[in-house]
Amino acid sequence: MRFAVPVFPGSNCDEDCAKAVREILDRPVDLVWHKDGNLDAYDAIILPGGFSYGDYLRTGALARFSPVMEAVAKAADKGKLVLGICNGFQVLLESGLLPGAMRVNDHLKFRCSIQTLRVENNQSPFTGLYQAGEEIQLPIAHGEGNYYCDQETLDKLEVQGQIIFRYSGQNPNGSVAGIAGIVNRRGNVLGLMPHPERAIYDWMGSSDGARMFQSMLRYWEGMHGAA
Amino acid sequence: MVQPEQQTTAVHVVERVTDQEPTPTQIRDGELFQEVGLNHEEYQQITKHLGRLPNWTELGIYSVMWSEHCSYKNSKPLLKRFPVEGPQVLQGPGEGAGAIDIGDGQAVVFKIESHNHPTAVEPFQGAATGVGGIIRDVFSMGARPVALLNSLRFGPLSNSRVRYLFEHAVAGIAHYGNVIGIPTVGGEVDFDDSYEGNPLVNAMCVGVLSHDELQKGVAKGVGNPVIYVGASTGRDGIHGATFASEELGEDAEEKRPSVQAGDPFMEKLLLEACIELVKKGILIGIQDMGAAGLTCSSAEMASKGETGMELDLDQVPQRETGMTPYEILLSESQERMLLVVEDGREAEVQEVLDKWELPSAVVGRVTNDNRYRIRHQGRWVADIPVQTLVDDAPVVYRTGKEPEAYRQNAGIRVDQPSVDIHPGEALNQVLASSNVASKRWVYEQYDHMVRTSTAVRPGSDAAVVVLDGLDKALAMCTDGNGRYVYLDPQEGGAAAVAEAARNVVCSGARPLGITDCLNFGSPEKPEVFWQLEGAVDGMSEACRQLETPVVGGNVSLYNESKGTIHPTPVVGMVGLVESRQHITTQAFKEEGDLIYLLGETFAELGGSELQLILDGKVSGRPPKIDLQREKKLHQVILTAIQKGWVRSAHDCSSGGLAVTLAESSFDHELGARVEIETALDATTYLFSETQSRAVLSIPQEYADAFQRLMEEEAVPCAKIGEVSGSCLTVEVNGQQVIDAPVKELKSIWEGAIPCAMNASSTN
Asked: What does UniProt list as catalytic (chain A) (predicted)?
């Protein structure tokens, strides 16, 4: 299974994501410059956190026009796995690969802390190794993680099992229904505000994020074999 | 390579660039040099150096180069007293940042710098650009920045303007570090009336490089191109260095245009591009355009290279039209870097800069005649001997005078509280003090985990950052106590170094070296100069004894608005953790572990948090420091940690033993049962801030071995209790004086700052 991590000007978690893939999965991973419009060689794409284009205009609003995003849409269409973390989630929303929009945190401040999340759906390619309803610890670090969608969309997300993670206990940004991460209808595109790549060893404060990468690998290689 | 013709005769320099500029004679006759912060004597020196009257552009160049900020003219004689050498030092003071060997061919690069005055008038941008500047200092050395810290001083949060300054300064620091993607892992915040009109924002950056990547800010090789890269030049920040070198007056608000605006996104691109150039090995010299902008970077590079330089200002990327040479040269627009590369390799550099879509231009050439020449629209607008800007900058030898207050303080007793207060009540009050209270409100706004290397996050004694591919890690912290230094500069200066080292040691690291930021009032006041001198002496002695040389730093004088700030030297310390297994935090971890207090406790409440709370001010003498004992303490703590005996280690500082115990309890909400025998009264014992002490928790199976080590090394060591339950209980001489649920204490400690910040903005 081959991973790509697109790098936009202003991405700053690209190396961290690549490190997680290398160290946890021991699979090949390449950083792909945003001007590269071809991701055909990869099975999974991780859109990293950071401040693409300085988050000028709106978070993720400029990155969606990068050539690499056409390739990401194509990959999603082919059923490859797409994981958008933090700024990556914001880019997925702006590009329409996931429904909804992001607002500034309701307390108006950037927040960096380790949060408790509840795994709402463990049937996705990203969460197969978690227990349904399990509480896990993942770090967040964002100023705009206040997920919003209209009632109709929310109802659909709920009914179709697209809400993958919810904040448990304290909601750190005011997101609708405590949403921390959602998938598309098909289930192969996950966007979440917390950072699984920052929680892969106990010394980081939590190692619960490792299973997200392991879940992706198990799902993919279960379907396509270890290639 | 073709050698350019050497110009031995001075070029013809225009008298003025525009009709708006004063002529050289008008400058002399109207004494206009005073407007840019130069005095008569300095003006005379300039005319002597040039052999003629300076024009307005040249005057501007001298004024920023000879400002305290760039030339250290008031502090240079004192800074020479710092020990700057050691077997581990690769680069001492004089470059963008210092560098220390950490083995395996790697080095740590770090520096701290102030951005006090900009923050006082425009807190968000002022603080943000302080962070941006210190990051550039570190990556201009060729290092990859891996961590940020900051040391903040503000007035009391009961003041609404202080809340505004504090909130926006923190947001500015957060914004810059978060966007650029360097974790802000530690630092400190302290509040005191003396900083009300003049807050302190000191930012520190730590980077890592391979020895062969170490860069220098030199211009060498006659004919080599000088390349400008980064943001275009605007009119922002003109005379920022001069502004930083004068007192904040009533008109400070008008100086808002002296404050630069930062763009961390641009700096992220600049950072990646520069690191790529370093890895390619193309650069001969690289220097940040920081204080005094293009002028300072280019002049210093030429001076260090013992060459000369010619710049053509028409080539400088500009974001505004009609800028004069004076404005282009003195602009402090952010996110700019000056490079010198080998002639003919411009295209290779261009390729990297184009990838990152960075504006760049060849703006000049290195010459061999030691002249600093500036051309603008085909005319020469400045022609100055390089060394007169840097090496021959004036030095002011001042003498200090012992302040009246220092003499008076000698007679004030501080061996017991001025008011009778029960230890339990005292603990509640001290934990609620904004100085001691949890700084979570601050550090939660900083991304402290990006780069996934942060092993000890903010809130412990020192932060610890692991090194990729190595078992080693770096511990780092900032420390300084303005109240101690105010009461006794020498003891306070030494204590700042000692506490920083102790913090690093408690995290499992061997202290390597320091960077310092000397925040003081006006050196023209003999009492302030006396403070500066004493603090430098105290710090120097501690650095010598603890073998932590000073590898760089910054001086911020003229910190005055309605009065003089407490003299506040801030120490940024970096230590090396030999193995990740040695990483230690302050938190109690297992019930049944034994609690030991290392070091002796004396009745020392001068300058203490308790004294400040009870009296509303500090007085007397601060705690004394014995550097030999301090060093011994570090050795035994480190040995015990490296042997694997230590579950937690926390140094005793603000708030004394009581606060140390409480803070160790908070992380895992694990209580402690403590019993103490002492000749002192309970409150004095628990809140004294005697130096060279630490509280360790040790698993029972290692207790004997641990105690033996302490006996062998003759370090005073008392078993004072056990980690236990969910309450903190303390008995002194058989009498219970503290008994409180940890949860309750923690909520006081965590609630203080959020509560103060949510106060109505109308009072």
From this structure: 86 (nucleophile), 195, 197
